[in-house]
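User: Quick sanity check before I run a bigger batch. Here is a single chain. Can you write out its predicted 3D structure?
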Amino acid sequence: MDLLDRYVAAVRRNLPAAKAEDIAAELRDVLLERAEMREAALGRPLDKGEWESLLVEFGHPLVVAARYREKQSLIGPELYPFYLYSLKLFGALTLLGVAVMTVVRVVVNSDDPGQIVLHLLHSLWWAATTVAGTTTIVFALVERYGGFERYFRDWTPDDLPEVERTKEPGHFASAVEVALGVLILLWWVGLVPIPMMAGTSGFRLELAPVWAQLFWPVFGVLAVRLAYNLVRWLRPRWRWTRGALAIVSTVGAIIVAVLLYRAGHWVTVIPTGMAAEQAGRLQESLDLSLRIGIVAAALVWSWQGLQEGWRWMTGSRR
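Assistant: Done. Predicted structure follows.
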């Protein structure tokens, strides 16, 4: 019986405090019943070795205690697809950001290749660890405190998208797009600050006045685009609303892109330690990159707007 007492005590130590005594008493009864069945079959009391065999077959105390807990996993099967997609997306964005910072470091500094590679690996390791850890914590909190299950409970078949729309983003991708849209909008209004490059790089970046002049137009485009992503995610059959939001966001984005491109200057490099020649090279690289980025963004938004407009018109005819 000493083995049984020690076993039950080991299980009780890992049980929820509110239910530990009741579960331990129930567990003791189950084990005693199994022992009695074996004793009846053998015609004698169990010896120590046979008690050990019975307890080993029943399971390790930690495993047995885990069966009585409500949460058996850090992230459940319903949330896991969202979690995996978020890891892939944020991991790709992190890799892109580290690569861009490495290119900037190559342009503005004269470090040897070995130092650059070491800096790249160090930055990538910490960035990847931070992204993976933060994403896991957020999804674990959602899994623990609930609320997300309403998405799977409060739905109707009529909300499902048309069969033809196989090339549109799925629910996972749409949810991530909405989250990114909220994050970008909060950053634009200053609620989520993103520090500019400074300090050890020997320079800092200052935004050109054109960004302040276009604050509200950019805010409007971001807000309309966020509304479009929300409708596409939650109400994919609202064709007219989707089409209207797509057209407004596309036209607004093209207008903002044209105004930005005409400004010709978007970021100013302020040297705080680097040579003027290096600062000049960095300024030229940033101007060229931003010019290409503005044109590319305008083309992408135009293409997406045309696609949505085509789906809108063909859907309306049907």
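The chain is about 70% helix and 5% strand.

User: Great, the batch can go ahead then.
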